[in-house]
Design brief:
- By secondary structure, the protein is an alpha+beta fold.
- The protein contains six helices and 23 strands.
- The chain has a nine-stranded antiparallel β-sheet with strand order 8-9-10-11-14-13-12-15-16, covered by helices on one side. A five-stranded antiparallel β-sheet has the order 6-5-4-1-7, with no helix packed on it. Strands 17, 19, 20, 22 and 23 form a five-stranded mixed β-sheet that branches.
- The longest helix has 18 residues.
C-alpha cells in the first residue's frame, strides 16, 4: 500500500511540474481576462487589460508572477493565467544561418509558409493589431541563446515596426545602431539609428511605412543589432505571408498610406481618428475643471484613493461623454466622483500637423486628505 501511495505521489508531482513548465524567454497565451500591472502585486497600478488568447512574450517568472511584453507595453501578470504557446512549425528545409559577429549575411532557406502570428486586443477605445514573426534561428545572448522577433503594430496612433529582444541593446542616447540586409545583399549596409524602448530591449524602425513596403518586396531579411557587450548579432527572418494580413492592419491603422489606402483617404478620415499622445505634435492640456468632490463619508473616516480614468477628447477639447471609462477604480464613491470630474473638464485640443484632432487621454485622479 505504501508503494502505491509513493507511485501516486510521483505521478502527481510530475503533473504539477508539467503544468508549471518554464516560461522564461518564450511566447505564451493569456488564458483569461487579466490586468497587466506595473509590479508583481495585485494592488499595483494597471498598465493594460489583456483579453483571452492574447499573445505575450515572457521575460522571467518568479513567486507566481511573470514579467511579460505585449505590443509597446510591459508589466506583470499572475503565472496561472499563462500557457506556453506551441512553437510554429519549422520550415521544410533548414540550413545553418549565420548568428553573431558576421560581416555578411546569407538569407534563410525559402519557404512558402506564413510564419506570422496575429494578436488582436480590445480595451475600451484602445484597439490594436500586432503581427509577429520570430527569427528563423536563435542568436547568442550574454547568458544564453534567445530568439528575437519582428513586430508590426497598428493602433490609433498609426503604424509602428519594432525588433523585440530579451537582452539589453547598446544605447547611444535614445537610439541603437541597426543594419538591415535585404534579400540577397551580402555586403554590410550602413547602420541606421533605431529608437530604443524604455527598457532598452526593443528598437523601433524609423519610417515604418517604407519598411513594411520593403518587407513586402524582400521577404528574406537579416537584422544586425548590438548588445551592451558590444557584440553584433544578426537575426534572420522569413516574412512571407505578410500580404495576407494587410486587411487586418488597414482595419486598425488610422492612416496606413502606400499600400491600398491613399493620401486623400487618410486626410479625409484624420478628423474621425482617435490618436494617442505618442502620435501627436501637441498633446492636450487641461484648461479648466470643476473642484474635485471628495465623498463626505470617506473624508470623515479618513479614506484616500487613486483612480485612473480614460476618455476621448473632441477637436474642441471637450470630453466625449460616452467615451469616459474607468481604468482603475478605488471605491464606488471615488469612482463616480472621478468620472464626473473628467466629464466636466475642458482641455486645449490635441494637434497633429497643425490641425485639431480627437485624442485619447488617461487621467490619474488622486483623493488625498489634507494633513494639518
Amino acid at each position: 500500500m505504501r508503494t502505491l501511495w509513493s507511485v501516486l505521489a510521483i505521478l502527481l508531482s510530475s503533473a504539477v511540474l508539467a503544468a508549471q513548465a518554464p516560461l522564461e524567454e518564450t511566447s505564451a497565451t493569456i488564458t483569461a481576462a487579466v490586468r497587466l500591472r506595473e509590479a508583481p502585486n495585485m494592488a499595483a497600478r494597471m498598465v493594460e487589460r489583456l483579453t483571452p488568447k492574447t499573445e505575450v512574450y515572457v521575460t522571467i517568472c518568479s513567486n507566481g508572477w511573470c514579467q511579460v511584453s505585449v505590443g509597446t507595453h510591459s508589466g506583470y501578470v499572475p503565472r496561472r493565467f499563462l500557457v506556453k504557446r506551441a512553437a510554429p512549425p519549422p520550415p521544410a528545409v533548414r540550413s545553418p544561418v549565420p548568428r553573431s559577429d558576421s560581416l555578411g549575411w546569407e538569407p534563410p532557406p525559402a519557404t512558402s509558409q506564413d510564419m506570422w502570428q496575429v494578436v488582436h486586443s480590445m480595451k475600451g477605445v484602445s484597439h490594436y493589431t500586432i503581427l509577429q514573426v520570430d527569427a528563423v534561428a536563435p542568436v547568442r545572448g550574454p547568458l544564453r541563446e534567445f530568439r528575437p522577433s519582428l513586430h508590426i503594430l497598428c493602433d490609433t496612433a498609426g503604424l509602428s515596426v519594432y525588433l523585440m529582444t530579451s537582452a539589453v541593446l547598446l544605447a547611444d542616447t535614445r537610439h541603437t545602431p541597426v543594419r538591415v540586409f535585404w534579400g540577397g545583399t551580402r555586403s554590410p549596409p550602413p547602420p541606421t539609428p533605431w529608437i530604443l524602448s524604455r527598457e532598452h530591449s526593443a528598437a523601433f524602425v524609423p519610417g515604418p511605412d517604407d519598411f513594411v513596403r520593403k518587407v513586402l518586396r524582400n521577404p528574406d531579411l537579416g537584422i544586425e543589432f548590438r548588445l551592451v557587450d558590444e557584440g553584433a548579432r544578426t537575426a534572420s527572418f522569413n516574412t512571407r505571408g505578410l500580404r495576407n494580413h494587410l486587411p487586418e492592419l488597414e482595419e486598425q491603422c488610422p492612416c496606413f498610406e502606400g499600400l491600398t489606402w491613399t493620401a486623400r483617404y487618410c486626410a479625409a478620415n484624420r478628423l474621425d481618428s482617435v490618436y494617442l499622445a505618442t502620435a501627436l505634435d501637441e498633446v492636450p492640456q487641461l484648461v479648466s475643471a470643476p473642484e474635485l468632490e471628495y465623498p463626505p463619508e470617506l473624508r470623515r473616516i479618513g479614506i484616500e484613493g487613486h483612480v485612473i480614468v480614460e476618455a476621448i477628447l473632441d477637436t474642441t477639447g471637450h470630453v466625449e461623454f460616452e467615451s469616459v471609462e474607468l481604468v482603475q477604480g478605488a471605491n464606488p464613491e471615488f469612482d463616480s466622483a472621478a468620472v464626473n470630474y473628467v466629464r466636466a473638464a475642458v482641455f486645449r485640443p490635441a494637434r497633429l500637423h497643425g490641425q485639431a484632432v480627437r485624442a485619447l487621454v488617461r487621467l490619474p485622479i488622486n483623493f488625498v486628505l489634507r494633513r494639518e
